[in-house]
Model the fold of this input.
Amino acid sequence: MLETVLALMGQWKDVFAQERTAHRAMRQALSSACVVGRRTIARSIAAREPIEDEGRDWSAEYRLHARSHWAEQDLFTPALRSAVAQCPGPLVPMATDDTQLRKTGRHIPTAYRGRDPMSPPFHVNLLWGLRFLHTSVLVPLHEHDQVAARAIPVWFENVPPVKKPGKRASADERAAYRDAIKTQNLSVAAVTMFHEMRRRVDAVGGQAKPLVFALDGSFTNRTTFRAPLERTILIGRTRKDAKLCWPAPEGGRRVYDEASFTPAEVLADASVAWQTAEIFHGGKVREIEYKELVGVLWRRGGARRPLRLVVVKPIPYRVTKKGRLLFRDPAFLLCTEVEGDVRPYLQVYFDRLHIEVAHREGKDTFGVGQAQVRSAKSVSRQPVLSMATYSLLHVAALEAYGARRAACLGPLPPWQGEQPRASCLDLLRHLRNEVIDKPHLVAFLGLKLSAQSILAAAAT
Done:
């Protein structure tokens, strides 16, 4: 797997102005992935074995993010090219969401105090950190193997909110704030990313495939659904009380019909027949029931754009094998594509869950956002380098071993049971062992790691 990782990272030479800068980025990415504990830049340097011709000036490792000229989103080009090639269907499924990186320093640029998404519903907690816009390609591994889709990150952008003026702010400052929040928000950044992602997918050979973005409810709004997007389809969750209607009868001046309805009313309406579809969810193919209305209008969101409303029936589940049958909440979805079969778009939305897996693995296991940097550029760039390394690690595992967990990753504990896919910890442990056992492969980077140096760095 190390050979595949190095081959993918070798494409970073086109991102950086100098080859030595690209080598420094590769060296820092590999050493950060191999350390134990918090993945800081200082610990990644301390884990390396000293080399005679290498200086001990650590400032160059920090200047990589603070001063070097490189476009951080270009680091995902190798992962995007491989992920698009592993989507054999007629579309490229993607998922977009925002995530927050916890911080503790009070002098970190773009850090803010926002709502903690993990807070309980009865008490909202606040979180000090950074906000990033994240997009992943949902590689549909279930089309050939009975394995869940894999989220491969291909975009990770720092999108800080506009700072709210204080109590003593003037009227002009408050007016400027109201104007700024209309143009500097997550939805506007998402629309810009949609256009850029379409261009990037075309550049790696996906011109004939439309992009399908599965969105959370916060991105299902007028900014995204009214944007003119080329060969791009959006499917997002909407509120159960959203006001929808049919187009007005022809011959009059009205655009919207006078009668309106809500998705919750469609769920309870017996005149709308239930349909069935087979969706891979929860480790196997399951049959779900849904209702579909094509050509509805959402005047507050989509304006005159015809949309498709999909109401998914609550899915039953059991906590234990002998436990009582429970039901999840119904899903109310709006899709911008009104032609063709809706089942491929439903599958993309069910696969959207795996972007949350990428969030958890990236932050908790891979240490995205744990580096201690303060420069304005470094705060935005260093997490992108970490997330790009996480993406390339999963792409290399798919190319080297396939969709299922390889035997070379070692046996699983007996209490863990069968695992169809390799975990992030499996891949990190395997990569660490290969870097230690095959130093000749990384010698051109000036990188040498040992078990003793990694343990010594963990104690610092």
